[in-house]
Design a protein that fits this description.
By secondary structure, the protein is mainly alpha-helical. The protein has 19 helices and eleven strands. Bound molecules: glutamic acid (GLU).
């Protein structure tokens, strides 16, 4: 097989959600599996829909996933489109520019070649004429589309015009898609589409074919929504005498409601996922398994990047649409978090603590980190679990103390006795704390669980925290005792209200 070269060719018309990045993952996995090249190309020919910042977003997110294109836009190309920032990557490659708005001369050249060979023609129909034609077609219940009025008019290159591709009449066009098998269209359904606009910008069909050819793309991996464009691409390859790449169109991703993935159905962008506390390796793993399976009956769900690369194949892509399930992605993220070496966990947790305004001495957080790690599905869950270690004033949910028959009187007793038991401890170790507090529960004839809820709320403010004795030991005797006293005060003045 000749060198495998795939591409990710986003249009910067918005901020890609995870479904968009799946296209990048598949193209990257396939290229890497075959020891080939993964190319990033920015398809920015639809100037009106271009969103500033969308290119930067794509580059930053790919980097977050650890995906670095082998070829892509250089710094000067990024500068030329105003998508430059400190730290922007500087990709290169032999077939640049990799930004379509900087390749206009090449599209014009190919359009001229098509005209010269009789496969395309200039058209100077005005928008009003096209509109009238369209209305008449609709009235006759015909498929709307350009009639071919200018086909033989030999419109001069000196008047404002577009270039249209001359669709062959009455023929079938076939394509062997690596995912869908043989697909055939009848050219009757295709109209003479514009390939070059009057302002010199190409339309998608021309630009994509020229670039995939010029950039020596061997395999086009893209979403099924591009399949209807494929016959036009096949005809363009044919007209230009170029060998078409292998096409692989994969199905869409639906939300759990069965509807096409949208923001409402939980389609996060990778930025949302990052801010929520997902790990890039977990997202990469999870999203790569939507619509692709590593083998018939394979139950394994956790794959390292290397495993994904070594197992990826076009045969594993499903025909049926995939489902994006945020809850399952959270579950997988939890698995990834638990597998991290604890130092790495601390490193990844730190920016989330900072973002939440929680300042905890490093050694204190490090002591508790293994317990926190066990309980974390998303990195954003860490701050509320450990904020009791910071110097911020505690907000106690006092009402949460009174579970399973616990009442303010008993709670007071638990707190008073615990206070004296703990203040007598010479050594504030986890075992000593555990023995002392268990003894308090026994003396009061309480189940340890219900006594511990009271203590947990008193000292940490809430009911869900890392394990109690470890939390107390890390917080330190002095603070634990102060907080128990504060909770006693709160109980005295108001038995059930939330204290602020
Ligand atoms: N530029 C198209 C997009 O925004 C990609 C089309 C293709 O892959 O051929 O998704």
């Amino acid at each position: 097989m000749k060198e495998v070269r795939t591409r990710f060719a986003p249009s910067p018309t918005g901020f890609q959600h995870l479904g968009g990045f799946r296209t990048a993952f598949f193209a990257w996995l396939f290229a890497k599996h075959h020891g080939g090249k993964f190319v990033l190309r920015i398809e920015d020919t639809d100037c009106e829909r271009t969103v500033p910042g969308a290119v930067r977003f794509i580059l930053e997110e790919l980097a977050w996933f650890g995906i670095f294109p082998d070829e892509g836009p250089s710094l000067s190309e990024l500068k030329a489109i105003g998508e430059y920032w400190d730290g922007a990557p500087d990709f290169h490659g032999p077939y640049g520019p990799y930004v379509q708005s900087q390749r206009l001369a090449r599209y014009k050249e190919v359009a001229e070649e098509l005209i010269a060979k009789g496969f395309a023609y200039r058209c100077d129909c005005t928008p009003e004429m096209l509109e009238r034609e369209r209305n008449e077609q609709m009235a006759r219940r015909e498929l709307p589309g350009y009639s071919g009025y200018c086909r033989d008019r030999k419109v001069s290159a000196d008047v404002p015009h577009v270039v249209r591709f001359k669709m062959p009449q009455h023929r079938s066009i076939s394509l062997t898609d690596a995912v869908r098998g043989n697909v055939t269209w009848n050219s009757l359904s295709l109209k003479d589409t514009v390939i070059l606009k009057s302002d010199g910008f190409p339309m998608y069909h021309l630009a994509v074919v020229v670039d995939d050819h010029d950039m020596k793309i061997s395999h086009i991996l893209r979403g099924i929504e591009w399949l209807p464009s494929a016959p036009i691409h096949v005809l363009l390859y044919e007209a230009l005498g170029w060998e078409p790449p292998v096409f692989a169109h994969f199905p869409v991703i639906n939300g759990p409601d069965g509807k096409k993935l949208s923001k409402r159905s939980g389609a996060a962008t990778s930025r949302d996922a990052r801010e929520k506390g997902f790990l890039p390796e977990a997202v990469l793993n999870f999203v790569s398994l939507i619509g692709w399976a590593p083998g018939e009956g394979c139950e394994q769900e956790i794959f390292s990047r290397e495993e994904l690369v070594s197992r990826f194949s076009l045969e594993g892509i499903n025909q049926a649409s995939g489902i994006f399930d945020m809850t399952k992605m959270e579950w997988m993220n939890g698995l990834y978090i638990r597998k991290l070496p604890v130092d790495d966990f601390i490193k990844r947790a730190t920016p989330f603590l900072e973002a939440a305004g929680i300042h905890i001495p490093h050694d204190k957080f490090a002591q508790l980190a293994p317990h926190v790690q066990e309980r974390t599905k998303l990195l954003t869950e860490i701050a509320p679990m450990v904020d009791f270690l910071s110097d911020k004033p505690l907000h106690r949910d006092m009402a949460a103390m009174f579970q399973k028959g616990m009442d303010p009187g008993k709670a007071r007793e638990v707190l008073q006795r615990s206070h004296s038991a703990l203040s007598n401890l010479p050594d504030f170790s986890v075992t000593a704390i555990s023995d002392a507090l268990r003894a308090v529960a026994t003396e009061l004839g309480l189940k340890p669980g219900s006594a511990f809820v009271v203590l947990r709320v008193a000292v940490t403010g809430k009911t869900i925290t890392p394990p109690l004795f470890e939390s107390f030991a890390v917080l330190g005797k002095e603070k634990v005792l102060v907080r128990i006293s504060e909770a006693l005060d709160a109980l005295g003045s108001n038995n059930t209200a939330t204290q602020h």
